Amino acid sequence: MSVVDDIGRQAQRRLGNALRARVAGDDASERAAVIWGRVGERRFTPDDPVWRVHADASMFPGGVGALLLQSLHPSAMAGVAGHSGYRGDPWGRLQRTSHFLATTTFGTVEDADEAVARVRAIHERVRGKDDDGVPYRASDPDLLSWVHVAEAWSFLTAYQRYASTPLDPDEADAYVEQSAVVARLLGADAVPTDVAGLHAALESYRPVLRATDAARDAARFLLLDPPLPWTQRAGYGLLASGGVAILPDWARRELRLPVHGPVRGAAGVLGLVGTKAVRWAMAGVAEERRVEGLSPSS
Length: 298
Hints:
Layout: H1 3-24, H2 28-37, E1 40-42, H3 49-54, H4 59-70, H5 74-84, H6 90-106, H7 109-125, E2 127-129, E3 135-137, H8 141-162, H9 169-186, H10 195-204, H11 213-223, H12 230-246, H13 249-254, H14 261-282, E4 294-296
Parallel strand pairs: 1-4
Antiparallel strand pairs: 2-3
Helix pairs in contact: 1-14, 4-8, 4-12, 6-7, 8-9, 8-10, 12-14
């Protein structure tokens, strides 16, 4: 390896570690050792679409899109605003979500089930009233279904747009079916199991979706005033643009984001650039993503 290659490799690894620490926490390496290194039965394998999607850099813009889309349900947004502490500790919330997603996708069945049980216990304590005075509880099966639909739709849409090799139709259906497994364990009901069902489920929620003041405030925080130093905002902006670009037109209209024209097209290009940069950086720490003694469930 030449000196130039060595310098490039070191830069790649530093950036990969920095990104992982931001998303997964300062103890990301230790957590990764548990998720990837624990021997035991797993629900999914590296060949499964859900593994491929959730391990890809497109999850960065996909996650932004999912948060924006989820905010359009008044009860879901009220729960986030009232209980998640996303403004006071946004990175902590992101890291907890990232750890849950990684554990339930790549970890052992035992660890995944323990993670689900912890989240279900938290959901039982989260309840209140939304901006219209409508009572909500985080454990409500229909609300859990909405959160899942918004996530699965956003993650799949981002992967199909920004991944190096998109899923074929059968693989995309398999992704929807596999991603529904954890949603059902969390208590969601009537979750879709194929792409057509996913699109239908998203449409079925349209009558209750709207941008409350809290949703637009969250969008401004997420897109215009993220808790990042100025030196990191340009890179984040690329990924955030990618998240905006995947949203349906009606969702962007509700949130007062660009809907048509060159601005929307540019957002998609910026998202692709940002995703490629993240993919390159995360390749620097990819050697830790090796499962020891993989024993997939039948």
